[in-house]
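Hey,

Quick one before I head out. I ran the complex with nickel (II) ion overnight. Inputs first:
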Amino acid sequence: MPVKNRFAELLPEIMEWRHDFHRHPEILYEVHRTAGIVAEKLREFGCDEVVEGVGRTGVVGVIKGNGSGTRVIGLRADMDALPIHEQSGVDFASQTPGAMHACGHDGHTAILLGAAKYLSETRNFGGTVVLLFQPAEEGGAGGQAMVEDGVMERWGIEEVYGLHNAPGVPVGVIATRPGPLMASSDEFEIVVTGKGGHAAEPHEAIDTTLAAAQVVVTLNTIVSRSVDPLKRVVLTVGTFKTDSGASNIIAHTATLTGTVRTLDPDMRKLMEERVRRVAEDTASAFGATAEVHWDPGYPVTVNDADATAHAVDAARAVAAHVEDNADPIMPSEDFSYMLEARPGAYIFLGNGDTQMCHHPKYVFDDEAIPYGCSFFAELVERRLNAR
Ligand code: NI
């Protein structure tokens, strides 16, 4: 079965919204213009309730179905852009220097608006759909802000679904999997302190650079020696800076920063414990000290098995092909906070052969829009008992 005909008709209009969002990208929580347009359109469509300022600058829309049934499901889109200078060459390119919709969130927002317009018109379901337009997916944890603002309880949401475009996956293909789909992302900073001194008199100093270098080497043994080989974990030390300003000075402090990614929530705790222990004890062997600051980031994005089955059923009805056991990927995603709060599923929507997300020449493919809209609409009509 192909995409819903209504979305083929609506495509020019939905593309216009998308191109307008694309011309006016907004970063993190500063999505005031975008959120204002979203709220205005939801009211225009006749949504039963529209609330702005949820999770700071998020928007919630509510659509009640005509059928019987009391189930409530949430559909989520992200609205924010990235601090990247656009080089895509499209004729509706960003008019804001240094900001660009380089992750396709303009497309996600337009897709959910398109689905909202259709669902408000048809209401061919029982129960309630809650539309969640969130700010600050790109590093600001806007999804967490929405959850902490009480969206799940306030609107009685029982399940949540979301989608992200996927460069490299053909347009018309939907891919997902039950269980972990995207990694958690935690960051650490380690400050190693020895004793600065003259390069010619190392015995009078404690060589911080050498101690910190050994910390880097030993950190890189954690994944190979402390982690079950069947688990997926990545540790990378990204920066190494010392306070020595010359070749003949032994540094007094060195600062390392890095990231830990994993698909297994239990591994996050293990990695934090091991990083602390390895850094402190390795530095100590050199007479130095290490202070570890751990900064937990986005959790693992974990798809609920039942919800994924519902998402796959809906996808099969509208997509050209469905991959229901796709490989997980190691980037992270703050829809994970919503999936921690409620069972649900996240799907990848094929975006064709384009540059990867976050690249200045990335282009969202408008041809993916009808598939995304149809997926959401079909999911609602199936899950909320229209058939
Ligand atoms: Ni994104």
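The first strand starts at residue 49 and ends at 54.

Talk tomorrow,
K.
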